[in-house]
Design brief:
This protein is an alpha+beta fold. It is built from 1 helix and 8 strands, in the order H-E-E-E-E-E-E-E-E.
Amino acid sequence: MKKKAILGFMTGAAIVAATTGSYAAWDKLSVTNAHLITIAKPVTVTSTLSGADEFSVSNNEDSRALESAPVYTVEMPISVEPSNHEVKLTPSASLSGDITNNNPTIEVYKGAEKIDLTKPIDAGDYTIKAAFTMPDDAPTSLDDVTATITATLVPATN
């Protein structure tokens, strides 16, 4: 190879190196930034009961009149955390077994205050009370009957 050709290649390489280095010096080709994202708390409903033995069950046996049905009231404590959402509580309750009257009266309390279930609820501790009126065909032993209470949160739509 001739000296002129080698000199030409060297000059070309020097020009490419100089323009590439200076290209990066004055042009801003990308930008990176970071922002901390706070994940919102989930909407939750929880119960601290770990088993059926922890349910509070009462009855009207001491005060009921003859020929009136006994009423058993089952209570379940729950905790609600709606985060920043408006939610309503929709409790349900049922009895197992072959009991024909399976429509309990359900009330929800926050402390001593009865809650209006048509309105949104706040965070806090609540008690669901389900009162089951025993029909004539109810078994004579409560060992044959299981009460189930479910607390469900739904969006509060107007």
